[in-house]
Amino acid sequence: MRPHLAAAAGAAAALVLALSACSSDIADDDGAKPASGASSVPDGPWSFTDGSGEVVKTDKTPTRIIAHAPAAAALISYGIRPVGIYGDESVETDPNLDGVDLTDIEILGEEWGSIDVAKASTLSPDLIVADWWPAEKAHSGLENGTKAKSKKLAELAPVVGPSQGGSILNLAEGYEDLAESLGADVDDSQGAKDKEAFEKARDGFIAEMKDKDLTALAVSPADDLLYAANPEYAPELLDFTEWGLQVVTPDSPDPDFPYWENLSWENADKYQPDVLLIDSRTFVDATKTAKSQPTWTSIRAAKEGQVIEWPAFWLHTYADYADALTKLTADLADVDDTIGD
Amino acid sequence: MTASVATATPTPARRRRASGLAVGLLLLIALVPVLAFLSVTLGSRDIALSEVLDAFRHFTSSSSVEDTVTVRLRVPRTVLGLLAGAALGLAGTLLQGLTRNAIADPGIMGVNAGAAFAVVGSITLLGISSLGFHVVAAFAGALAATVLVYAVGSLGRDGATPVKMALAGAAITAGLTAVTTGLLLTDLDAQQQYRFWQVGSLAGRYAPIVIGVAPFLLVGVVLALLCGRWLNALALGDDAARGLGVSLTRTRILSFLVVGLLCGAATAACGPIVFVGLVVPHVARFLCGPDYRWVLPYSMVLGALLLLGADILGRVLGGTGELQVGVVLGIIGAPFFVLLVRYARLADL
């Protein structure tokens, strides 16, 4: 559309330098308030250890941040406001952005794999923030399969973010550290209250599990197959295991896509947990699909109605984790632990 | 004149050939119950033969898992496999005969693209995620696409020539696929649900769906079997067929309706199934020569055997999951087709 912007998006290091110089000018001219809204931006140089292990350094502390939607939600809870965000779905439906104030933040993408880099470059970002995915060796939004144009976002500014991995807390703590390094007053923030709420919710969960001997299987029912989740690739399931809920690990995950074991509906009863967990984002439709299967009730937990929502794959912040754990604890309180094997 | 005399009093050689073909057909038909038996007894779950037999003897709604799997999963799946296979085999033969195109299959008539578009449209635009509704939508979409292809292909002075039909089919497939992809890109949930329709499968189709599409498939099969004489005339070329008193337009319209019915119902129930409609007519012609009055029944039985056989293979080889029949057909179909091209002169249409 605007040729000079397209050129900027496609240009190499020289232009990026020019842009970041430009951005510091903006911050300086503005004087009183940094673009990030940090209570006091520390003098540079600034550095942060990315999820990839690389230490990212800049001369000045970044203030003009573009963040992936869940990362943005985490930063905002500590008072760091990005200038732009991009998400994997519409900001209206993204659970990570539920209740997050997006006033004055540019929306640069609402679909996985597609980021408006030309628009992003007009924001003169000096930092891009997104989760690091160790299996794919890329940050969110820049993975294989996204548009080549979108990946040019990484040429506008350095990209950092904590690593996805064995626990949701990697992310929650990682974003807390990142916010602090950017000048957030972490101790006096919504994030600090969220963390307290989370710790309370976690302790409640542990207490609830203590007297029970509960096994759980996380599933995704489809018309032709029943997918059994492999907790190894679902950090929240690993956390639940750590806190006393025994999540079943399927014994033969699909070698090409190890997130799941594929069970034909003939074999739906291969695992007999006390309770079944179904992705909360598609709970209603998935439950309907499951109930249309004649062998769904061959799983005793399904027959007894012990099927509850699983906050699958999207949790990032203490606030969301606290809510999810509280709900999960309440749901598990009614579950009979003698149903499964 | 000579020709009509020969028809009236067939030579002994021709009669023997006809009886040989009849015996061959009966042998193939005899394989159907054998495969059906295997299909009910074999699967991704090991069930002892005695338990399979018990399941039929006293099935109640509160039966064991083995009973449920046998009666409510495997029986409808077997019926659907046989019906859809027969339909696709016949539809492929009809299409190849009508268009005199040796590599015509339901896919090039826009059937799959029409069904896919209808399913994705009903998910993304109407927000409906019920499998039953998708089957109805797919059927309507497949039929509509077939009619559209015929309408576009018959524009112009010389009517629906084979080349124009093939071009119309390719163009409409491309157009519909583009819109379908566009809709899918904007909707993650739709992608998840549509996954079921990308590769044909017989899994997860239970009695209501099978009973729903069976009448369409049965009517289509009967009508298709009656088309042999027309196809024989068309095989001689448009002018010769016209000379034999066949109305080209009427024949084409009726035959395409039958193809739409067969493919539409089969695709609605199983998703896009490749290779059956493409390969089966060639095998049938290889076995019984060019007379469509034999090629059609052979295609029907071979199609049923191929689809159900491939499904059984996928169930046995797929472990606790299953290989979808569409995938199995792709794996065994490709080399098979190469062999056919290599050893049978398939351009003789």
Describe this structure in words.
The complex is a heterodimer of chains A (341) and B (349). Chain A is of the alpha/beta class. Chain A has two domains: 3-188, Nitrogenase molybdenum iron protein domain (Rossmann fold), CATH 3.40.50; 202-333, Rossmann fold (3-Layer(aba) Sandwich). Chain A has eleven helices and 15 strands. In chain A, strands 10, 11, 12, 13, 14 and 15 form a six-stranded mixed sheet that branches. Chain B has one domain: Orthogonal Bundle (ABC transporter involved in vitamin B12 uptake, BtuC), CATH 1.10.3470.10. Mean pLDDT of chain B is 85; it is low at 1-8. By secondary structure, chain B is mainly alpha-helical. Chain B has helices at residues 2-8, 12-41, 49-57, 65-99, 111-124, 131-153, 162-185, 188-198, 207-225, 228-235, 238-243, 248-270, 276-288, 292-317, 325-343.
N-to-C terminal Cα separation of chain A, in Å?
62 Å
Q: How many domain units of chain A?
A: 2
Q: In the CATH hierarchy, what is the class of chain B?
A: Mainly Alpha
Q: DSSP helix count of chain A? A: 11
- What fold name stands as the CATH topology of the largest domain in chain A? Rossmann fold
Give a quick rundown of the structure.
The complex is a heterodimer of chains A (341) and B (349). By secondary structure, chain A is α/β, with parallel strands linked by helices. Chain A contains 11 helices and 15 strands.
Sequence-ordered SSE layout with sheet pairings:
The complex is a heterodimer of chains A (341) and B (349).
Chain A (H helix, E strand, L loop, with lengths): L2 H8 L2 H18 L15 E4 L5 E4 L6 E4 H9 L6 E4 L18 E5 L6 H6 L4 E3 L2 E2 L4 E2 L8 H4 L7 E2 L7 H14 L8 H21 L4 E7 L3 E5 L5 H8 L3 E2 L12 E5 L10 E5 L3 H9 L8 H4 L3 E4 L7 H16 L8
Parallel strand pairs in A: 3-4, 3-6, 4-5, 6-9, 10-12, 10-14, 14-15
Antiparallel strand pairs in A: 1-2, 7-8, 10-11, 11-13
Helix pairs in contact in A: 7-11
Chain B lengths: L1 H7 L3 H30 L7 H9 L7 H35 L11 H14 L6 H23 L8 H24 L2 H11 L8 H19 L2 H8 L2 H6 L4 H23 L5 H13 L3 H26 L7 H19 L6
